[in-house]
Amino acid sequence: MKFLKSVTKTMKETRWPTKKEAVQDTTTVIMTSVFFAVFFAVIDFGVQAILKLLV
After folding, report:
1. Parent domain of 50
2. pLDDT digits (tens, 9 = 90+) for 7-26
3. Which of 1, 8, 29, 41 has the fewest CB atoms within 10 Å around its CB?
4. Which GO terms describe its biological process (predicted)?
């Protein structure tokens, strides 16, 4: 019972993000993911090109 009371208390204290904050955070996550995908793709193509020159 103590656990459930603690959970209920914590849930009441939780501040949920506004729609604007949620959209901003989602956009940040998507842009960061795209950036890293492009970054690693460029690195991968570069390593492949270097290996083809060496072999």
Report:
1. 20-55
2. 999 999 999 999 999 999 99
3. 1
4. intracellular protein transmembrane transport; protein secretion; protein targeting; protein transport by the Sec complex
